[in-house]
Amino acid sequence: GAVVSQHPSWVICKSGTSVKIECRSLDFQATTMFWYRQFPKQSLMLMATSNEGSKATYEQGVEKDKFLINHASLTLSTLTVTSAHPEDSSFYICSARDRGGSSQETQYFGPGTRLLVL
Amino acid sequence: KNQVEQSPQSLIILEGKNCTLQCNYTVSPFSNLRWYKQDTGRGPVSLTIMTFSENTKSNGRYTATLDADTKQSSLHITASQLSDSASYICVVSAPDSWGKLQFGAGTQVVVTP
Q1: B41 to A110: CB separation less than 8 angstroms, yes or no
Q2: Mean pLDDT score of chain B
Q3: How far apart are CA A90 and CA B63, in angstroms?
Q4: N or C: which end of chain B has fewer CB within 10 A?
Q5: Considering CB atoms only, which of A32, A105, A108 is closest to B32?
Q6: Could you read off the pLDDT of A14-23 as tens digits, one per residue?
Q7: CB-side exposure of A82: number of CA atoms within 13 Å?
Q8: CA distances (Å), A101 to each of A13, A89, A98, in order?
Q9: How far apart (Å, rounded) are the C-alpha atoms in residues B1 and B50?
Q10: How far is B106 from chain A, CA to nearest CA, in Å?
């Protein structure tokens, strides 16, 4: 099956620093990638939808200047948490929509990135 | 109000036993319904995906059912194993939603020896 990777798998940083998380579709082209955040014992919360070559669409309540998303190619999207604070500590997961899939709704999830801000 | 409701919230079962998880949704119309397994600290992994015209779909010891009339789905785990301990998430997508998914809160399953 299709594979989506994320890098890094975990990161610890000091408050005030910026952290970049990469999401790659390894064996397919993804016109659309999604970024989610997941807090302990809760389900995934969609943060933004990232379309290749255009600006991301953010969900209500998600600060676009705080969470910068770049989808520069059909296989790579990045999420940068700017000036991270302890409340940004969470599990960040991306998913990629398969452009050539038989179903318009085919999506594959990455393994997630654990962010801990001290 | 969440458009995808799952029950129970959590479940403890003995190794080797069967269990059934429930999912009720109000998303309408809907394109497909999926069940994902999420291990702690990992991303969700797809177990089954069903369109509105499908009633059942199996993947090894996992069997999902769908009743589009009552908007209910279930995931049955047969002969549970310790490795089945995870969160099971019901996810519904709507047509023309540009890939946006509606997530249930998940059912936390713990399989004990």
Answers
A1: no
A2: 92
A3: 32
A4: N
A5: A105
A6: 999 999 999 9
A7: 8
A8: 37, 34, 5
A9: 24
A10: 7
